Amino acid sequence: MPSYYPAALVKRADESLIRALAPGVPMRRAAFGLAQVVLRELRDHAGGAVGQKVWLVVGVGDNGADALWAGAFLKRRGVDVRALLLNPRRAHPAGLAAFRRAGGKFVDDVPDAPAPFGGGPGRGVVVDGVVGLSGKGPLRGHAAEIFSRPSGHRVVAVDLPSGVDPDTGAVAGPAVTADVTVAMGVFKQAHALNPGRCGRLELVDIGYPEAGFGPLGVLDGARGLTALGQERLAALLPAPGPGDDKYTQGVLGVVAGSPTYPGAGALCASGALATTSGMVRAVGPGAKALVAVHPELVVSEDVESTGRVNAWVLGPGADESTRALLLRALATDLPVVADASALRLVPDAIKRRSAPTVVTPHEREFEAFAGRPVGADRAAAAAALATECGATVLLKGHVTIIAEPGGQVLVNIAGNSWAATAGSGDVLSGMIGALLASAAAEHAAPVAAAIHSRAAALAAGAEPGAPITASALAARIPDAIRSARASGLARRTPSVRAAGRTGDGNAIGSYP
Ligand SMILES: NC(=O)C1=CN([C@@H]2O[C@H](COP(=O)(O)OP(=O)(O)OC[C@H]3O[C@@H](n4cnc5c(N)ncnc54)[C@H](O)[C@@H]3O)[C@@H](O)[C@H]2O)[C@@H](O)CC1
Ligand SMILES: Nc1ncnc2c1ncn2[C@@H]1O[C@H](COP(=O)(O)OP(=O)(O)O)[C@@H](O)[C@H]1O
């Protein structure tokens, strides 16, 4: 089941939900959940709720209605709530009536907080109820003006930050940058694809059945974006058993590094070595330099003289002198990770392969390899290339997209940006290779991406963190694997239902 859904599907699911429950129930739950989050924001950032200010910026649809209903709840809790109706004549009639009944006031602007950066008195919450699931294009007019200036208030978005495309997360003009986004019912694709605009995610239970969507049907078998949950990640990480030796865990062959770029090869090897307790072979003109850095590597000259391998990593730091070697490895029927120079030197041979292949471009490499730019819809771009090439496409970035040739699309949300450093991609391709040679081959790319982000966070240290090198990231891979395995084990015995995102996109919300 996906973790993040496309808007059209959610709209249909919402309609089924309304039919299954009494009319108005999902929206009241949505509004109640939203109000709880706003109250928490006031307590945490304005020093309390009673008498504090909340401004609702209200559009014409159900998203604005959620804001108005929440405003009514908040008003009854003693909050000073004011609504700014972007189009007073078209505002949701029932929502408006509820807000009026509760004694809510109307305004035509949102004043800046007197102490924008200090919190405390004067700082309130602005609720973005401009548009949600039906949002198209950037913010316009007054809404654009309100949300384009830093007001100093906390911004809570209803369902989605307005101006952000619900399916692609793309922003083509003025858009809300939320501190918190309160997702209704299920997460939408933009929650995964644009975490920078969403801020912290909270999920409100609006009545979908907890264990899947069976009774509603609509979301069953749905396509969307999947995140590996903690438990799944832990279960997929390979570990040697009593019967294992260095060969049975998978042997990886690495064609990386060259006299021109020795460093990239060393980093790739460090990623591979830290991700498997089996064996890594270094092959080709760069191999001797790599063994000087990593004595664990087993070196050979070419593909033919290399002992058995179960998978190849090709490309980091490779130069023209490795072209023939790359082609020979690609001609085998073994799984291959093709990265960096391999994508540039031998693209056609990579595209022709029928054996399992993972390509790992960043955006510029994607453009050169695919012959077209990634564009605004990163997930669709990766999925289209995966189908075209019959390969797994791992499109790197803060949100890494992993598109499988069969159509499944996974996302890895880094959670921090410290991995944006030279050489960290080389470490990643080594990690994918090690897993591709192992029993975890089928899920090598998403598992490696998740561990890579975790290792970057560990290397950067406690908040607020500090810059890291790719070598430092590689050095924390064992800790990342250990902590992922440990938290997966802990999750098998959950004791409480959590409200809010758990970091793996599989959070459940609670409705008191
Ligand atoms: N129907 C229900 O029972 C539920 C609805 N929910 C809420 O309803 C929302 C969806 O509501 P709607 O489908 O009514 O639509 P929205 O409220 O998302 O959008 C309303 C209208 O705004 C206009 N619009 C689109 N883009 C715009 C832009 N950039 N600038 C200005 N106006 C724009 C369009 O005419 C659109 O139909 C969800 O996101 C969620 O917040 C939730 O409360 C869950 C339950
Ligand atoms: N802003 C970011 N936040 C988190 N991770 C990032 C960010 N930018 C890049 N990364 C990650 O860092 C790595 C960079 O890879 P790449 O661009 O190939 O670097 P190099 O070629 O120098 O090794 C990838 O794993 C990518 O997902």
Question: What would your notes on this structure say?
Answer:
The chain contains 19 helices and 19 strands. It has helices at 7-20, 25-45, 62-76, 93-101, 141-148, 189-193, 195-198, 230-236, 262-275, 287-293, 323-331, 340-345, 347-352, 363-370, 378-389, 424-436, 444-460, 470-475, 477-491; strands spanning 4-5, 53-58, 80-85, 105-106, 125-129, 154-158, 180-184, 187-188, 200-204, 225-226, 251-255, 279-283, 298-300, 311-314, 336-338, 357-359, 392-395, 399-403, 409-413. The strands form three sheets. Strands 10-19-18-17-16-15-14-11-12-13 form a ten-stranded mixed sheet, sandwiched between helices. A seven-stranded parallel sheet has the order 4-3-2-5-6-7-9, covered by helices on one side. A two-stranded parallel sheet has the order 1-8. Strand 3 (80-85), helix 4 (93-101) and strand 4 (105-106) form a beta-alpha-beta unit. Helix 9 (262-275) crosses helix 10 (287-293), helix 9 crosses helix 16 (424-436) and helix 17 crosses helix 19 (477-491). It is elongated and about 80 Å long. The structure holds ligand NAX and adenosine-5'-diphosphate (ADP). Ligand NAX is lined by residues 14, 18, 26-27, 30, 59-64, 66, 131-137, 139-140, 158-159, 184-185, 206.
Radius of gyration: 25 Å
Query: Which hetero compounds are present in the coordinates?
Result: ligand NAX, adenosine-5'-diphosphate
**Count of extended strands:** 19
Number of helices: 19
In the CATH hierarchy, what is the class of the largest domain?
Alpha Beta
Low-confidence stretches: 493-512
Mean pLDDT: 91
- Distance N terminus to C terminus? 26 Å
Q: Biggest sheet, strands in spatial order? A: 10-19-18-17-16-15-14-11-12-13
Strand content: 15-25%
Globally, the shape reads elongated
Question: Main sheet, how many strands, which sense, barrel?
Answer: 10 strands, mixed
Counting structural domains, the number is: 2
Percent of residues in helices: 25-40%
Q: Which architecture name of the largest domain does CATH use? A: 3-Layer(aba) Sandwich
Structural class by SSE content? alpha/beta
What would CATH call the homologous superfamily of the largest domain?
Answer: Ribokinase
